[in-house]
Amino acid sequence: MTTAAPRSTAAATPPAGAVGTAHTRVEGVEKVTGAARYAGEIPFAGLAHGWLAVSTVARGRIRSIDTDAVLAMPGVLAVLHHGNAPRLETDYIGMLGTRPDPTCTVFQHDRVPSMGWPVALVVAETPEQAREAAESLVVDYEQQPHDIDFHSGRPDAVGLDGHMPAVTGKGDLEAELAASAAVVDAEYTTPEEHHSMMEPHAVTALWDGGRLEVFDSNQGATWVVGELAKMFSLEPSAVRVRSEHVGGGFGSKGVRAHQVAAVMAATVLRRPVRVVMTRRQMFSLAGYRSPTAQRVRLGADADGRLRALEHRSLSLTSTVHDFVEPSAGHSRVMYDADAHHTANQVVRLDLPTPTFMRAPGEAPGSFAMECALDELAVKCGLDPIELRLRNEPERGPVSGLPFSSRNLAACFREGARRFGWAGRDPRPGVRRDGRWLLGTGTAAASFGAGAGPSTAVLTAEADGTFTVRIAAADIGTGARTALTLIAADALGVTTDRVRVRIGDSDFGPAMIAGGSMGTRSWAWAVNTAAAELRERLALGADIPPEGITVRSDTTAAVGALARKERHSYGAQFAEVAVDLTTGEVRVRRMLGIFAAGRIVNPLTARNQLVGGMVWGISMALHEEAVRDRATGGHYGADLAGYHVATNADVQDIEADWIEDHDPDDPVGIKGVGEIGIVGAAAAVANAVWHATGARHRDLPIRPDRVLRAAAEKAPHA
Amino acid sequence: MDPSTSSAITLNINGEKHTLSVDHRTTLLDALRERLEMTGTKKGCDQGQCGACTVLVDGRRAVSCLQFAVAAEDRQITTIEGMAEGDELHPVQQAFLDLDGYQCGYCTPGQICSAVAVIEEHAAGWPSAVTDDVRPEAGPPPLTPEEIRERMSGNLCRCGAYTSIVQAVARAARSGRAAGPPATASAAGDTQEEKDKEAAA
Predict the structure, then answer these.
(1) Which of A477 and A3 is assigned the larger pLDDT?
(2) How many alpha carbons fall within 13 Å on the CB side of residue B192?
(3) Cβ of B164 under 8 Å from any chain A Cβ?
(4) Same domain, yes or no, for B75 and B96?
(5) Are residue B143 and residue B189 in the same domain, yes or no?
(6) Where are the compositionally biased (Basic and acidic residues) regions (chain B) (predicted)?
(7) Are B40 and B98 contained in the same domain?
């Protein structure tokens, strides 16, 4: 008999559960030896190289493109532009429920709605030839005046629903504010921020035997295959997208201009075409986080109980596609008040379309609200943790739904104990270490624990091993390893008998690596298929040479999940040192304690949570894309001009978690990709206040801002 | 081949000679990746700002995107593909693997090449910007986390795996130089994080 069970060591002694124990990455050797091939690194015979040319004006029309001069250059094969590119279907709704962003459906018209808009693809035999030709391409524009002026109070701001309603409201805000013993009314701003993952967007497209083959770096093969099939009017089965290794995504790696341009070129030239974005192009083509201007008004009784909460956020989008950074969403989950009003508004400007970036909405929204609560705590004379504990809601403040589990208070208790919060002197500006002023701060975090429908294919092989096939993406999350542990436990075998294959649209539809939903959604599908496979194997049938294969589809199960407020939570703590002579802020230590459901692989989960907190430091102190109003473009669109945290910026950071069971949830995994950044920048900003007595409501907390704040305080010091 | 725009060159990479004709505009990085199929060296920015393309040139770390391939003749070039000996990983590679000194892995080859050089630079007594006593007779400073962070800051990791990278470099430095000064892997001490990593390793 060749069923799995008798062969398994489980027959005698069940293997210890793999989930919850630390495992190094299954593709680790490939990554540390350089053997792992990313999308732009796979060789093909006859490969041609495409180089995007982007607009040098922020608004206008293309009058002419001088292709003749470029076509005469050595090695140049083609110049694709709006005058000759294949027509695309753009009237459809994609996997994420939106129409395609025209930034991605390239070369369909002569209009230029933003600086850095893709206007042509130059294809040549070598990358050097393509690059020189693209940079030599002369495009003549009819330039029109542009407006990139983002600030609060724009009269043309409109409410935009996006992935949540634009506006929520209950109660009489003004009356409750008037009746409050303590009131905070402040505006907070966050700047334009860029994903800046280390691997630039890269793709190779080719036609092979009547099928379009796409080797891509993305966060969801299902997502990309669906969009490309619709745009090019192909049967979904005629397109295959593979994405074996992905050098970071953070929300940016969906469908973008380079994939569409590469498919066009491969179709026109009938040979493989690779297109890789330059680092500079990524600043206009890869999406970004919109700047935000947020007004928060809080009113509380003397004991800190919230009577009034208002959180209004303004973000920007392009003139060609709507995207909203829903920063007010944080307040819809975290805190209740008798009068509770939130709104997400956008203004449409002559800029590229922003997109999802690690904790969209939650990251900037938590900065504003968690800083405002810190200000309220001071006004009420309360410890900021105590203020939050006094405002723990029983049900979703806006939805009225019960929480599936809400362990925020436990996170604060454990975090306060380990950070050494007890006995903290609340007075600002009184601790010194040589030239440094010291302070500590805290903030709360939460992120939604959603799930998306997925399919998984599990095969019991004749040799006693198991193969899992699922169109998951491992963008550095450790998903491939996590799914190996999950499958091993679900099958009741050791991990060395499980082989997980991901990143291939031919494996069937699956959720993207996004919204902290990837591992949760894929695990659900793997568990479901494993259960059925074990039943089949328990019947004792022989395993034929081709194995026994089952396929799961969680669409119905995900849809049947009871409606509840499902989130992970966390408590962030930071200790900073501020030098008022140089304006320098150093984060000496950070601690994040999270309630994030079942932790699959502590080794990689901790790394990811810490990585999110590093993003919080980076958001608080470093990141800011600055635009020139005259041109509409960036100053310093590169990694020297756009600062992300370096190794020397990151000192002692620790992330850990508490038990967080959700008896009602069939998977129990909540995801850890995004919650690490939520609240992290607020904890740093609150610590800077505690160190210096100056509130920094505009990010990043640059040295010049620290110095200016110190100078403003000086007369009163 | 047009001699005004391209040349035949020989590159010595990981102890092997490779003869090829290159466009004069070709960087060492592109020669490795596009011409020799040695894609372990990564292109993160192509501007010398991120460190992903770090290789060793005559034993010293260098960003391969800022040198032309034609200028790399007669140099001994070591890339990530040349670090392991057969199936046996270099101690730095092993430490990155065991301690999860990465996430997406794209900056990793550059981090590892940098780390190998950092350990050698430190052993040779090179000070860094955070070294307190830079007199030659003071000898190498303790390879503290602060020293490692400073010396590794030319390599960006957007996933934010810096704390694990520092631990990996510290462990590799310890394993390679038993007589060297002790390094502490983490200021936090005996944390659950370290226990997990020992268990995984």
Answers:
(1) A477
(2) 16
(3) yes
(4) no
(5) yes
(6) 192-201
(7) no
Angle separating helix axes B108-123 and B91-98, nearest 10 degrees: 130
Chain B residues with beta carbon closer than 8 angstroms to that of A195? 158
CA distance A566 to chain B (A): 26
Using CA coordinates, name the residue in chain B closest to A475: B104
Per-residue confidence (pLDDT) for residue B195, from 0 to 100: 66
Q: Which of A608, A569, A616, A568 is nearest to A590 (CA)?
A: A616
Using the Cβ of A279 and the Cβ atoms of chain B, whether some distance falls under 8 Å is answered with yes
Q: Do residues B62 and B44 share a domain?
A: yes
Same domain, B40 and B99: no
The domain in which residue B193 lies consists of 91-200
Instruction: Report the gap between the CA of B29 and the closest CA in chain A (Å).
Output: 12
Q: Which residues of A touch B96 (CB under 8 A)?
A: 32
Question: Mind listing the pLDDT tens digit for each residue in B66-79?
Answer: 999 999 999 999 99
A positions 665-684 inside 8 Å of B (CB): none
Structure tokens of A363? 């990251």
Q: Is A674 a catalytic residue?
A: yes
Task: List Cα–Cα distances, A658 to A113, A156, A367, A676, in angstroms.
Answer: 48, 45, 23, 14
Q: Which domains does chain A have, with CATH numbers?
A: 4-36+452-560 (3.30.365.10), 401-449+562-717 (3.30.365.10)
To the nearest whole angstrom, how far is the Cα of A583 from the nearest Cα of chain B?
19
Q: Is B137 within the bounds of a domain?
A: yes
**Do B143 and B176 share a domain, yes or no?**
yes
pLDDT of A484: 98
Query: Which pLDDT score is estimated for B188?
Result: 38
Output the six-digit token pair for B167. 């631990």
Domain tally, chain B: 2
**pLDDT (tens digit per residue) in A587-629:** 999 999 999 999 999 999 999 999 999 999 999 999 999 999 9
The per-residue pLDDT of chain A, averaged, comes to 95
Cβ separation of B188 and A22 shorter than 8 Å?
no
Chain A partners of B103 at a C-beta cutoff of 8 Å?
Answer: 248, 476-478, 604, 607-608, 611
**CA A115: distance to chain centroid?**
24
Over 90: is that where the pLDDT of A3 sits? no
B56 & B112 share domain: no
Which of B35, B53, B82 is at the close of a domain? B82
Contact across the interface for A196 and B102, Cβ inside 8 Å? no
Position A665 scores a pLDDT of 83
Task: Name residues 16-55 of chain B within 8 A of A (Cβ).
Answer: 23, 25-26, 30, 33-34, 37-47, 49-50, 52
**SS3 of A341, please?**
strand
CA dihedral A257, A263, A264, A267 (to 10 degrees): 180
